[in-house]
Amino acid sequence: MKKKTPLVIVLACLIAVAVLLAAETFIVKVKTTALRSSPKFYASAVTDIKAGDRLEQVSMQGDWVQVKTASGATGWIHKSALEPKQFNLLASNKNLKTQATADEVALASKGFNKQVEDSYRAKNKNISFVWVDKMLLIKIPLNQEINFLKDGKLADFGGGK
Amino acid sequence: MKARTLIIIAIVVAVLAFLGAGCSVLQKGADAVTKINKSPVVKTAVALRNSFADITEEEEYYIGRSVAALILSKYDVYQNEPLTQYVNKVGSAVAAYSDRPETFAGYHFLILNSAEINALAAPGGFIFITKGLLAQCRDEEMLASVLAHEVGHVASKHGLKAIKSSRLVETFKMLGSAVAAQYTPAQLSQLTELFEGALSDIAGQLIEKGYDRKLEYEADSLSIKFSTATGYDPNGLAKFLEALVGESKAAGVKGWFQTHPQPQDRLDRVKKLIAKLDSLPKENQVRTQRFKQAMSGLK
User: Fold this and answer.
1) How many domains does chain B have?
2) What are the pLDDT digits (tens) for B156-181?
């Protein structure tokens, strides 16, 4: 029995490495959204997540991915909110993981961003953003949207395919 | 048996040692890059971008905001809270069952105070529909089909495709050389000019010329897909296009007619696509009733 123990441990280590290599992580690419209790848009929210958060894939169902957050919460999210990121040995090191995130933040903030919009607005004072900002505030509360779908027998509540 | 076990252990140890060494080398390499000069890593990553598909969600959002502001500089907003809420409920439903339910800041719908028959979608999910177009709709299915067509443009990033590729290449190249957290005044000025150029490429297509026919047909096809997935009868699109066939002669070449292919041509294609579907969701009295109620306030 004693002789077998090292082999079992070593094999377990190898399996662990293989699992780490195979596990897929995602980065949230939308500003804010929620993890859902089931793979449906109108399922209850488990937790809120935001751009840049890392999620680890647990399973998949169609276009929906079951993921786990860094704090251990598990829920479903549509793949359109996620940027796939292959897990690798480099990123398994905690320091490097932090560094990779810092680089990604630097990259994400590059390009057409708020700084560029401010500069554009300073040059084009006749272009108003008042209604653009008001438009962004129009949001149908989840319970109202669910009732709307239920009453109209739409989607999961009637005729959706 | 003992010898075989030893061999297995030796192989496993060798593999682990190799992996460990590999890790160590890679790690040292990465540490060196991190400590000494990480900017080339960022530079290379940025320089890898070369097409509209490489525009990030956040960049798309900022482009969309400004395109929306440009649309709103040409049209007034129709301020009718209950009707705007209703349009947003229908739009949110078809967006939720589209190929791209999540965008950086979500989908938002606004009514424009214009008798012109038109609908416009800015990148990222800023969708506009005129009072004139709303007046052409007789039920929720028709409205849903038009909104689903616009969601289709957003989902397939048709707006971003309008940006000239030479402009994108120049933008990505310029970003590749800017590695500091903040842009220098010269970089910001250059980037703002590129941004203005991109906006004019998109607004030119959206408001003036219209998308390529191929993209309009694609949006029609997506409208049928998203409407059906939501539970709407996709014939809403056919009924809407039929209504436009009559209107197009009277309206001349303004709004939707200026920027979209001939409605009869689209109608023929849409009918063929719908005919291929196995079973269709049926129209529903509750939906038609609430549509009429919401529209009763339209002035």
Assistant:
1) 1
2) 999 999 999 999 999 998 888 776 66
Residues in Cβ contact with A83 at an 8 Å cutoff, skipping those fewer than 6 apart: A26, A27, A28, A29
Task: Give the pLDDT band (50/70/90) at residue A17.
Answer: low
Question: Is B120 within the bounds of a domain?
Answer: yes
A29-38, A59-68, A90-99, A134-143: which has the minimum mean pLDDT? A90-99
Chain A residues 93-112 within an 8 A CB cutoff of chain B: 93, 96, 99, 103, 106-112
Judged against a pLDDT cut of 80, whether residue B238 lies above it is answered with: yes
What is the residue whose two structure tokens read 């607005």? Answer: A121
Contacts (Cβ under 8 Å, ≥6 apart) of A125: none
Give the torsion sign (CA, B52, A110, A112, B65).
positive
Range 177-196 of B in CB contact (< 8 A) with A: 178-179, 181-183, 188-189, 191-192, 195-196
B85 to A103: CB separation less than 8 angstroms, yes or no: no
Query: Please, which residues 44-103 of chain A have a Cβ atom closer than 8 Å to chain B?
Result: 51, 63, 78, 80-81, 89-90, 93, 96, 99, 103
pLDDT, tens digit (0-9, with 9 covering 90-100), for A108-140: 557 899 999 999 999 999 999 999 999 999 999
Residue B200 lies in a domain: no
Residue spans of the domains in chain A: they are: 24-110, 112-161
Asked if B130 and A136 touch (Cβ cutoff 8 Å), the reply is: no
**CATH class, A24-110 region:** mainly beta
Residue A81 to chain B, least CA–CA distance (Å): 5
